[in-house]
Design a protein that fits this description.
Oligomer: single chain
Distance between the termini: 58 Å
Strand order of the largest sheet: 3-4-2-1-5-6-7-8
Shape: globular
Helix content: 40-55%
Radius of gyration: 34 Å
Number of helices: 36
């Protein structure tokens, strides 16, 4: 209900006391208002009208509607209207109670899971010293300062560095000049912050270039400047550098096409286009890294020093970019989804489903959780944000974070558990335009006359707008600047002022409460606060002592601060909770002492500036006493003013950037590092004769004109050759694949087909010059790539093989019949490499027909082409080469052994409904199918199996960061490294081998594994094969009440098409033509 309407709250209590027994002829009578309504009621409630009221009324209008209904002169009509409104209130109260009950159950479950997570992590803290144990379990209080512990600032001696920093802020209208702040809810303080932050970073010694990535908008609804691909913000500190390449320095806004090109859409609708932004950002970063590398590193790319996401959508993007590029990530939440969800639920006006539909809040929360998974550094403004906001998330626990950090400092194994490092770094401010009087008397004012009266000629326009309210405008001004929101607690301030006679005699009160036209047209909460303010002014007879102007401009705010300082006034922020308190810093910069709430960010500000007093916002007397103390004691006022001006530099942009860069410097340095593996990249042209031979071989593919398979066969010594092949089937770094499993999976007929495949492979090797030491991998030369990611599985291995093979052959036909150079082929699947070879052998397909295999749900990449190595020599047998660079790439926050121990605790299901109590096994470890970066589990109890997002939630609460995928028709569970997935593997190949992402064509079914939807969006082309897959695992992806596919995949994307009818080569070709193939 609306805050301040005590009569409604009392009436609600009376209704709730009655409960659901209320009916058409019985109204609650405990409240005086209810008795009045009941006494005048002479008509029954019409069911239809009540249902219409319940369905269409907005509770924020209740007070206004009640007043209008009470003013109706006809007694019978008035009675009917009031009765209908009573029913509406009763329905809202019941709804609010139900929401509170559901929210309470959710919080209880989360608390229980959090405690269990701490209990499971207790083994980590066992060997801590006694002092560390005390520090680890205290959690909050004074010890919290260690989270943002002081580090040495970024020194000026870092000027020799050439750092490249990437910032991301996606939503809103972002430009360097004439920012349209306040145009809409997406274009506010965050836009101003990131632009100023980029400019300030570019001026720091050692920072060469800063790119602020945002969305490109070419819409007639906004200015043309938002469609410009690049905008320079500042040339940076290298503008006068005579060295070559200085022209690339500075800060830039880089706009990435994302979503509908001709539409400006609100942030809640941007979620399906995140993957597209990621791909576009990779293209830009790769180009810029190459340009900067050629200037300074002799051709080696200059990778970003850090990628920093701002807000949840940019955090999601930064996490994916960090995984694809293998560079550190930082994150700033600005405002957090869980905190907003809790606040909206407490209001009781909307259910979680309604909130999710409006704000896409669950998608936002998951993006913030992913940001916690990936970030090495989380930048916060206050300690309150860490304790009370980030503490709501599955991925952060203060107690566990302390224990892990303590172990990390001592070099003790954390068993695969990680927590992001939270640092308190208040936002910076630009004080260049701040002008204040450095004296402590009016005589020093440049705008004052000799008698101390300010000259009207020097007054800005806002001065007379404020002073017209006052009988004596020269008294010290108590200034409050806040929206008329109940949380800002303006009414308590007004009561404190009105009830303190001494304070009224010494000072005036100015309330800057935004801009307004008609109070009745404002939202319910704002309208209620303003109405209460006017009533309190009348109640305490404060006319001539309180100013409340209707309008002011943003440019007037500095002058308002200046006016308050000239009168030796005080700035007050009495909010119930203040997350940061930017106005307190602005006031201090203009020489104003402060009185502020003791809840939230002002505690940190007071500790840094020491320029005022903190109070309990609920205590009227404490507020009035603090204000009176500062206004009456001139020495104290002057001391607070001097302290504020002396220490305000701590909140300047240079200081903010120095602390930020010092914190980032503590992150583990990561960047892509490619090993040569004998793959020389500079000695063979992309159109070499060897490549032409490969293309000729690809085109033939043993296909006749009518499309039938006609493999050539040459007799071999079957068993000897097969044994030789299997024994020599090794990965490039010497590790054996699961050969035993492969041998067992082949029958006599399959052995013969394998011999045929080997014959063709060896014949091809002898005639193909690509096996020489200095050759390029074929992927480097491909202009187009067909990625077969169809999750075809069947209970029968034979049926699974035949179904997948039929799809592969149809796609092969399309690719090999293309004009010009044929595309490369990649098989992306949850199968192991042994299972892949077995299936291909069954279908008579040579392994080298594919350029790469992405297996185990994206945790491993194999290249089946023969490679030279010193160990094997140029005459070596056929090899499968695992990409060890990719293994390093996805190794971030992965500890397989520690994860196995944690998962052991989560593989059991406790059925509390059974008597006696029973524990059942949900998952069983599949050691044979597991690998070093893919833990495989068999699903033993399908009825009790948790969703994939529930598994990730439980693991996050235990400090474990990974990727959970159900596959093979929900019969297997894969646990992978955080940055390992089939979609990220494609991005890795794009970065590693330089294949243009727009020329990658991904073939998927209509359903598949739980990572299926990750393959549907982005800049690559996606072809959905109708009728190819009947069953999948996607029902196990998310719990009900979470977000849906429409929040992940743009269903109207021009890069996504479906085949018509089936998946024959003809229909596939038709779908490809729609994509411009």
């Amino acid at each position: 209900m609306t805050t301040g309407n005590q009569w409604i709250n009392g009436y609600l209590e009376a209704i709730l006391d009655v409960g659901t027994g209320i009916d058409e002829h019985r109204l609650p009578s405990k409240s005086p208002l209810a008795r009045e309504v009941a006494a005048t009621n002479s008509s029954a409630v019409t069911k239809y009208f009540v249902e219409e009221v319940v369905a269409t009324f907005d509770e924020t209008d209740i007070h206004r509607t009640w007043m209008k209904a009470s003013a109706v002169r006809n007694a019978q009509e008035r009675s009917g209207r009031l009765e209908n409104l009573c029913w509406r209130i009763w329905n809202l109260a019941r709804k609010k109670k139900q929401i509170e009950l559901e929210d309470g159950e959710r919080l209880v479950w989360r608390q229980r899971e959090r405690e269990q997570g701490r209990k499971d992590a207790a083994e980590i803290l066992e060997d801590l010293s006694e002092g560390e144990k005390v520090d680890a379990v205290e959690g909050t209080g004074a010890k919290m300062s260690r989270i943002g512990s002081f580090v040495e600032s970024w020194p000026d001696q870092q000027k020799g560095k050439r750092l490249y920093i990437v910032l991301i802020s996606v939503h809103g209208l972002v430009r360097g000049d004439n920012m349209e702040l306040g145009r809409d809810s997406d274009t506010g303080g965050q836009v101003k912050y990131v632009v100023e932050f980029a400019k300030a970073l570019a001026m720091m010694p050692g920072v060469f270039r800063v790119d602020l990535l945002t969305r490109q908008i070419s819409s007639p609804d906004v200015d043309w400047s938002y469609g410009e691909p690049t905008e320079m913000l500042t040339p940076g500190c290298y503008e006068s550098d005579v060295q070559e390449g200085a022209e690339s320095s500075g800060a830039y806004i880089v706009r990435i096409p994302c979503g509908p090109r001709d539409q400006y859409i609100r942030k809640e609708l941007l979620w399906p286009h995140i993957q597209e932004f990621v791909d576009g950002a990779i293209v830009h970063i790769l180009n810029m890294a190459k340009v900067l590398g050629e200037q300074f590193l002799g051709g080696e790319p200059l990778w970003p020093h850090v990628i920093h996401g701002h807000y949840a959508d940019a955090g999601d993007i930064a996490a994916l970019l960090s995984g694809a590029l293998n560079v550190p990530m930082a994150f700033t939440g600005h405002s957090l989804g869980r905190n907003k969800l809790d606040q909206l639920l407490k209001q009781g006006r909307s259910s979680s489903e309604e909130i999710n539909a409006t704000y896409k809040i669950m998608r936002r929360i998951e993006a913030e959780e992913l940001s916690l998974d990936a970030a090495e550094l989380v930048v916060t403004s206050t300690r309150q944000e860490i304790e009370q906001q980030w503490g709501l998330y599955d991925g952060f626990d203060v107690t566990l974070e302390r224990g892990l950090r303590s172990r990390s400092r001592r070099g003790v194994n954390c068993h695969g558990r990680f927590m992001p490092r939270m640092v308190v770094t208040p936002p910076g401010m630009d004080f260049s335009s701040v002008v204040h009087d450095t004296s402590d008397s009016f005589e020093g004012d440049s705008d004052a006359s000799a008698d101390g009266v300010m000259s009207p000629r020097a007054d800005p326009p806002i001065y007379p707008e404020i002073k017209r309210f006052f009988t004596n405008p020269h008294k010290p001004m108590i200034l409050a600047l806040a929206r008329p929101d109940p949380k800002k607690n303006i009414t308590t301030l007004l009561k404190a002022f009105g009830e303190c006679r001494q304070l009224r005699e010494l000072a005036n009160l100015t309330l800057i409460m935004g801009n307004r036209e008609d109070i009745d047209e404002m939202s319910g909460g704002n309208s209620s606060v303003l109405t209460t303010v006017l009533k309190l002014i009348d109640k305490y007879d404060l006319y001539g002592q309180v100013a409340y102007p209707k309008h002011h401009k943003q440019s007037d705010v500095p002058n308002i601060y200046r006016l308050a300082a000239k009168t030796k006034g005080v700035f007050i922020n009495p909010a119930l909770v203040e997350p940061f308190g930017l106005t307190l810093i602005e006031a201090a910069a203009h020489g104003l002492p402060m009185v502020a709430t003791k809840n939230g960010g002002p505690v940190d500000i007071q500790q840094a500036l020491n320029n005022g007093l903190l109070v309990d916002p609920h205590d009227q007397k404490a507020i009035s006493d603090a204000l009176l103390k500062l206004v009456a004691d001139r020495n104290l006022w002057s001391e607070c003013r001097r302290n504020g001006l002396k220490n305000i530099h701590l909140y300047s942009w240079p200081e903010h950037c120095r602390i930020y860069l010092a914190k980032v410097a503590q992150c583990r340095t990561r960047h892509p590092h490619w090993k040569s593996n004998g793959w020389g990249e500079d000695t063979v042209d992309a159109d070499s004769p060897g490549d032409s031979l490969r293309d000729a071989h690809d085109i033939s593919l043993r296909l006749s004109v009518d499309g039938e398979r006609t493999p050539e066969r040459v007799s071999l010594n079957g068993s000897a050759t097969l044994q030789k092949f299997l024994s020599n089937l090794k990965v490039a770094d010497g590790k054996d694949i699961n050969v035993k499993s492969l041998k067992q999976s082949l029958n006599k007929n399959q052995e013969q087909k394998l011999q045929d495949t080997l014959e063709e492979s060896e014949g091809y090797k002898s005639s193909n010059s690509w096996n020489n030491t200095n050759s390029l991998p074929v992927l480097r030369k491909r202009k187009r790539l067909f990625v077969i990611a169809v999750d075809y599985y069947h209970n029968s291995k034979k049926d699974s093989a035949e179904g997948l093979l039929s799809i592969i052959w149809e796609i092969f036909k399309v690719g090999r019949s293309s004009a010009g150079r044929p595309p490369g082929f990649v098989l992306s699947t949850a199968l192991t490499i042994s299972e892949i070879i077995s299936i291909l052998t069954t279908g008579g397909i040579a392994v080298h027909e594919f350029d790469a295999f992405i297996c185990n749900s994206g945790s491993e990449i194999y290249y089946p082409s023969p490679l030279y190595s010193e160990e094997s020599g140029p005459g070596s047998e056929f090899q499968l080469s695992i990409d060890s660079d990719y293994e390093e790439h996805t190794d971030y926050r992965w500890d397989g052994d520690g994860l196995r121990k944690t998962l052991t605790r989560l593989t059991f299901y406790e059925d509390e409904t059974r008597e006696p109590f029973k524990t059942e096994l949900i998952f069983g470890a599949d050691q044979e199918s597991s690998s070093c970066r893919c833990l495989t589990y068999d699903v033993r109890n399908p009825s009790a199996v948790p969703k994939a997002d529930q598994i990730r939630q439980k693991l996050r609460m235990r400090g474990v960061r990974c990727h959970a995928v159900y596959c093979k028709n929900a019969t297997k569970l894969h646990i992978l490294p955080l940055f390992a997935s089939r979609s990220q593997a494609l991005r890795y190949m794009f970065i590693r081998w330089g294949i243009e992402v727009a020329n990658i064509f991904v073939f998927v079914g209509e359903t598949g594994d739980t990572d299926h939807e990750e393959l549907l969006s982005g800049l690559h082309k996606t072809i959905v094969l109708k009728s190819a897959i009947q069953n999948g695992s996607e029902d196990l992806l998310r719990v009900s009440g979470s977000y849906g596919r429409e929040d992940v995949v743009p269903l109207d994307s021009p890069n996504l098409v479906h085949t018509e009818g089936n998946y024959s080569s003809e229909t596939i070709l038709g779908a490809l033509r729609k994509l411009g193939y």
